[in-house]
Amino acid sequence: MGFFDSDVVQAEAKQLFEDYQALVQLGGQYGKFDRDGKIMYIDRMEALMERYRIFMKRFELSEDFMARMSVEQLKTQLQQVGMTPQQMFDQMQATLERMKSEIPDL
Description:
The chain is an all-alpha fold. The chain has one domain (3-101). It is built from four helices and no strands. It has helices at 7-27, 35-61, 65-79, 85-101. Helix 1 (7-27) runs antiparallel to helix 2 (35-61). The longest helix has 27 residues, at 35-61. It is globular, with a radius of gyration of 16 Å. It starts with 6 loop residues before the first helix and ends in a 5-residue tail after the last helix. The mean pLDDT is 92.
């Protein structure tokens, strides 16, 4: 069975994508959130990034050709903007840390 043939992988990928889309859409209203809403949004985004990091690590560790190709495609896309996957995660974390620093009394 291939990596992408797994019902668990497919369900996890679908849920990760849906959760990301929902957070991005919600993020459009971030400036209108109260303090607790901003904290909740950041916490959810951090949890999502951790899930994504784990999901990508599973791709990297897989021996499945398609999983490996997916990792290589991501690397190629990121190289086009001068980044590595680790730099992408670092950038996301830095953005969330900056957002936290802008919340009073946090």
